[in-house]
Amino acid sequence: MARTVMVVDDESSIIESLEGILSDEGFEIVSVDSGTSALEKIGEVMPDLVLLDIWMPGMDGIDTLVEIKKIYPNLQVVMMSGHGSIETAVKATKLGAYDFIEKPLSLEKLLLSVNNALDYYRLEEEIGLLREKEENRYNLSGHSKAISEIKEQIRVVAPTNAWVLISGENGTGKEIVAHSIHRLSRRSHKPIVEVNCAAIPEDLIESELFGHEKGAFTGASTMRKGKFDLAHEGTIFLDEIGDMSLKAQSKTLRILEEQKFERVGGSRTIEVDVRVLAATNKDLEAEIQKGNFREDLYFRLNVIPIRVPSLRERVEDIHELVDEFLKEFSLSTNMESKTISEKGIHILQKYNWPGNVRELKNLVERLTIMIPHKVIRASDIPPPFNRSPDIRKGFESILAHKSLKKARGEFERIYIEGKLREFNGNISQTAEAMGVERSNLHKKIKAYGLDGFRNQ
To answer: What is the average pLDDT across 403-416?
Structure first.
């Protein structure tokens, strides 16, 4: 698709010349003869670049530039003038112009400026899209009471410099909470540096966290900054802090307390200003009792504790999460957008989700790829996700009945529910597998209140 360039100049000869040059280069040209006309036309054609003359009657180029930047701050503008001066060029640049070229126009310089400005515009668009994608990636989804409380905690703690210890099961979204805190903090313009504490070998912990000088050890051919150095004035996120060795914990505690260190092989003390966020899937108090975690490090990190709820505690968010994942995978795979039936959601809400949101996301990706039809039905959901925890627990409750009659009735209800799930609510297949008549099965389903599992 051809890029559109708007030419704004009150001299018809300049317009004709630029139209010819730029058209030959494959650009689509829109021409106007005044600043007022340019402002009216920009909204209609949405050009990728504006070539704007400075000296024009009525609204001059500088005033036009100011108005363009107010309405379209990312639109690139190249100023042109036959009476240019360094002062005018500096003023235009300060007001947001990408470049300033003098008349008579040099063909080579004109095309260089136009192409560079368009490349810059394209890069800004890509950066904007990447930033938006990154923000969406770390978006904490859901409106349940449990997740709303977490969002409120994040809102309160983020603007401060307080250290935060984030706990929760694997797959609950601890990393998302950390990034949300950083994004809403005063340090958001600086980096958040992640450290996977479980993945760093004990003998490399100092080099990884503090960096090393050239020649500090065999293979250290250049100086390398450590994680704390890279996070200066930003945030460092110590993920899986509970998996750190005691030796590594000791070294980490020192820098957390002093916020200064020496690189491996160096003698110069380096001071840093970092905010610390840490996350763990372990019960650190229990780990302290076992002798696996330092109590002083725990107290240093645990200034603001945030516990991320498991998916079992926020099943009402499952529908919203599934819809979000379906849209995400549809966009990333260029596949037709899918939806899920209410019965399908009902089955997912009954599952225990030991892998939490990560497990749900993996299942949705699998269903998006493997299910050929547009609507994901209850019958499309594979084991073990289509098995209710109530069934597994139900057999334990049978033993609690003192009456054989009540125990038999409870067993029959659980058995029929399990078979209905096995055959995705198909009455004929369920009756055949159970060795009973359809009419008899219908009566049992009605008697035990299992209509919700029946697929008519």
So the answer is: 83
User: How far apart (Å, rounded) are the C-alpha atoms in residues 207 and 212?
Assistant: 6
Residue 405 is assigned to a structural domain of this protein = yes
Q: Give residue 261's identity as a one-letter amino acid code.
A: F
Mean pLDDT across the stretch 160-171? 95
In the chain, what is the straight-line distance between the N-terminal and C-terminal CA atoms, in Å? 52
CA distances from 176 to 48, 196, 411 (A): 35, 15, 43
The answer as to whether 146 is a domain residue is no
- State the DSSP code for 272: -
Is the distance from CB of 376 to CB of 421 less than 8 angstroms? no
Integer Cα distance of 230 and 193 in angstroms: 7
For 187, the token pair is: 């340090």
Helix (H, G, I), strand (E, B) or coil at 304: strand
424 domain-assigned: yes
Residue 22 and residue 62 in one domain: yes
Question: pTM, whole model, 2 decimals?
Answer: 0.66
Identify whether 389 is preceded by a cis peptide bond (ω within 30 of 0).
no
Task: Indicate the number of domains in the chain.
Answer: 4
Strands 164-167 and 304-307: parallel
Supply the pLDDT for residue 456: 45
DSSP states along 358-401 = HHHHHHHHHHHHH--SSEE-GGGPPTTTTS-HHHHHHHHHHTT-
- The residue range of the domain holding 325 is 311-380
* Structural domain ending residue among the three candidates 321, 355, 380: 380
pLDDT at 131 exceeding the cut of 80: no
Residue type at 94 in one-letter notation: K
Residue 353: CATH number of its domain: 1.10.8.60
